[in-house]
Amino acid sequence: MALSAVLFDVDGTLADTERDGHRIAFNQAFNEFQLDWEWDVDLYGVLLQITGGKERIRFYIENYAPSLLSKNNLDEWIAQIHKTKTNYFLNLLKEGKIPLRPGIKRLLDELRKNNIKIAIATTTTYENVSTLLQCTLGDSALEWFDVIGAGDIVSKKKPAPDIYEWVLNQLNLPAEACIAIEDSENGLKSATAAGIKTIITVSEYTREQNFSYAALVLEDLESTNHTHQIAAQSFDKPLSVQTLSDLLN
Ligand code: XBP
Ligand code: MG
Hints:
Blueprint (H helix, E strand, L loop, with lengths): L4 E4 L9 H15 L8 H7 L5 H12 L9 H21 L9 H10 L3 E5 L4 H12 L9 E3 L12 H10 L6 E5 L2 H9 L3 E5 L14 E3 L7 E2 L13 H8 L1
Parallel strand pairs: 1-2, 1-4, 2-3, 4-5, 5-6
Antiparallel strand pairs: 6-7
This protein binds xylulose-1,5-bisphosphate and magnesium ion.
């Protein structure tokens, strides 16, 4: 089937946001709430198995601070911490601390030139996505995206397929006409369960995960050094609309 849309994950895929972005913002919020929690680089790698910031804080409480589970209005308190964390993260984006990964701008430009739809499927908060896009690609960048599926728009986050199914539904396209670009096993599971062929660009935290059923595994979008499981073609150039179309067929 002809390629109609490419669905991008955000964290780890559009930009390396986790270690020096979200993690820092979580710690700043904990400090503001006078909590002595410190999510260091290694612990954060463990916590990343849980997608969604609010869900990640709850998981941390359950496993590292269980006495707080009996706190009144726990969900509301977690939501307040998370809102504070989002504000800190937005500051980091606005300070220009988080650039796009190699090849993202090039591929987006090429997709637009070829009238291929572009969408986002992420567990992060909508403001984080819109601000990242505006800070890195300019104020009009949001118009480049046909659908943005983010955060709590679905109740079950990745690895559940719900966010990808929601985006497909909004695009009014079958999974077979789309490709997803992800960086993590949770993301690969989510897109694959929605029936979408998936390319992985590995990130620092996800490098050792199981990507055996991805269509293609790349260092980043500019890299020609890859392993590809599903496609029989060989690729000696960075990922392009042509390569994406070949992968689908
Ligand atoms: C990203 C996430 C998010 C971010 C933090 O996963 O799990 O929770 O870490 O963002 P994926 P929020 O790339 O698989 O979508 O705090 O806004 O949730
Ligand atoms: Mg990701």
